[in-house]
């Protein structure tokens, strides 16, 4: 069964360092998302991506964040200069041709710990 | 600020009993309501996506209803089994071109044998 895969599963980094989280969405999907969950809090929307550009982003997704789909298979989230409050579980998700009436398929998440 | 609320926060149910829990959401500018099942150390898995007022969907022993006018959805589990233990997340999707989901905090369900 096709699945969304994410790497790394856990990354520990120093404050101020750049981090790249990688996702391989399901191959024929068109819509891509990043969400995050800070421990004990709700799952929060960060950004959606369609047709090689950001279609929506939340207030959390400031200039320190960027996304890229460099090669048609990977979908990456970059945090330029990490802060302590960026520590969270980051989930990638993708959605297929059904678009906004379809379900999201989530990866297992990348846990980011900023020290 | 859009607030999606789920209740109860956690629930212990005896194996074999039926149970239900609630998701409430702002009814204005509504597009779709999603339910996801999230087991520990796994990824959230979609259960239902509902868009129309009065929608009812069923998958095995799990079903859901949607009231878009008053802004709530119920998830029902009939004859709970230990494998139903998980966190159940609902998420509201807004209209007007917005395609991010706003999640509730989830209902953590524990089935006791």
Distinctive features:
heterodimer; A: mainly beta; about 0% helix; globular; B: about 110 residues; six-stranded mixed beta sheet; five-stranded antiparallel beta sheet
Structure description:
- The complex is a heterodimer of chains A (115) and B (113).
- Chain A has no helices and 11 strands.
- Chain A has 115 residues and is mainly β.
- The N and C termini of chain A lie far apart (37 Å).
- Chain B has strands spanning 5-7, 10-14, 19-24, 30-38, 45-50, 56-59, 62-67, 72-77, 86-94, 101-103, 107-112.
- In chain B, strand 4 (30-38) and strand 5 (45-50) form a beta hairpin.
- Chain B is globular and about 40 Å long.
- The termini of chain B are far apart.
- The chains are: A mainly beta (115), B mainly beta (113).
Largest sheet of chain B: 6 strands, mixed
Quickly give the structural class of chain A.
mainly beta
Q: Give the distance, in angstroms, between the N- and C-terminal Cα atoms of chain B.
A: 40 Å
Number of strands of chain B: 11
- The portion of residues forming beta strands of chain B comes to over 45%
Sequence-ordered SSE layout with sheet pairings:
The complex is a heterodimer of chains A (115) and B (113).
Chain A: E1 5-7, E2 10-13, E3 19-24, E4 31-37, E5 43-50, E6 53-57, E7 65-68, E8 75-79, E9 88-95, E10 105-106, E11 110-114
Parallel strand pairs in A: 2-11
Antiparallel strand pairs in A: 1-3, 3-8, 4-5, 4-9, 5-6, 7-8, 9-10, 9-11
Chain B: E1 5-7, E2 10-14, E3 19-24, E4 30-38, E5 45-50, E6 56-59, E7 62-67, E8 72-77, E9 86-94, E10 101-103, E11 107-112
Parallel strand pairs in B: 2-11
Antiparallel strand pairs in B: 1-3, 3-8, 4-5, 4-9, 6-7, 7-8, 9-10, 9-11
Quick recap of the structure?
Chain A is an all-beta fold. Helices cover 0% and strands 50% of the residues of chain A. Chain B is 0% helix and 56% strand.
